[in-house]
Amino acid sequence: MTTQQLVAEIQRKKSFLCIGLDVDLDKIPPHLLDTEDPIFEFNKAIIDATHDLAVAYKPNSAFYEAYGVKGWIALEKTIDYLNKNYPEQFTIADAKRGDIGNTSTRYAKAFLEDMNFDSITVAPYMGKDSVEPFLAFQGKHTIVLALTSNEGAFDFQTKEVEGKELYKQVLETSKNWKNSENLMYVVGATKADFFAEVRSIVPDSFLLVPGVGAQGGSLADVCRYGMNDQVGLLVNSARGIIYASRKEDFAEQARAEALKLQQEMASYLG
Ligand SMILES: O=C(O)c1cc(=O)[nH]c(=O)n1[C@@H]1O[C@H](COP(=O)(O)O)[C@@H](O)[C@H]1O
């Protein structure tokens, strides 16, 4: 999916909501555990109930890898279901990969080609030659961790390197990498104070913003400081939406939570 198509979907739905599909079998409704593939059944119900309110879905691979082969199959079924039934959705493999170039190429192939996600999250720690293999995939997007939502973001990302915070070095340096037009960045919703600085370096880039909902980030602040004239934001919530209820009505309740966020987003879109 191109950035222009994503922007058009955002305008059409008045939403820049990304729903995190972080499935934990201890948290899903117990009645689903009797089905053949509870992870997929859960995702399918959540997607069917929320697709008109969201423009993106982000399964985090950890929640699938944790269940071995069964989890991996459920992830494949989920991305296939999205691509087949809701091709207008922007899909994010939240895998946080990145390795020497030869290895990154294989990660990129697995997620962007074989599974056919629109994008993947990538850690920039190993530098240019670890990220460029992802950027080489045309029509796909590489979402680099810039300033993450967790407390540990202050351990390295805000420390100065040659007089400038590391996350700023990441933003500035990556702009010069090959195919950098395919870059997006992760900036946590809990770091609203930093959005103006981020925007001064990457005014036009899309930002994936996790951390509203369970982590307590403010959607209002993210929009105030992070939105650009193309919107430029995908705001993710996982637990705050998908675990709204453990009863039979779980998908309806997830929809109700998604609707609250979408309505707030619509108010900021004007
Ligand atoms: O890359 C991410 O999506 C990510 C980056 C970050 O800085 N913080 C962050 O929470 N995430 C992911 O976003 C999701 C947040 O989930 P909730 O806190 O349940 O809404 C999880 O899948 C996290 O792994």
UniProtKB/TrEMBL annotation:
Record pathway: Pyrimidine metabolism; UMP biosynthesis via de novo pathway; UMP from orotate: step 2/2
Family, as annotated: Belongs to the OMP decarboxylase family. Type 2 subfamily.
Catalysed reaction, written as an equation: orotidine 5'-phosphate + H(+) = UMP + CO2
CDD domains found in the cross-reference section: OMP_decarboxylase_like
InterPro entries tied to this protein: Aldolase_TIM, OMPdecase_type-2, OMPdeCOase_dom, RibuloseP-bd_barrel
Active site: K96
Domain of life per record: Bacteria
The protein's Enzyme Commission number: 4.1.1.23
Matches recorded under SMART domains: OMPdecase (SM00934)
Gene: pyrF
Protein name: Orotidine 5'-phosphate decarboxylase
Residues of the signal peptide: none
Gene3D superfamilies from the UniProt entry: Aldolase class I
Domain Orotidine 5'-phosphate decarboxylase: 16-254
Keyword terms, alphabetized: Decarboxylase, Lyase, Pyrimidine biosynthesis
MF (Gene Ontology): orotidine-5'-phosphate decarboxylase activity
Database matches in Pfam families: OMPdecase
Any one biological process term the GO annotation gives: 'de novo' UMP biosynthetic process
Species assigned in the record: Imtechella halotolerans K1
Group of enzyme by EC: lyase
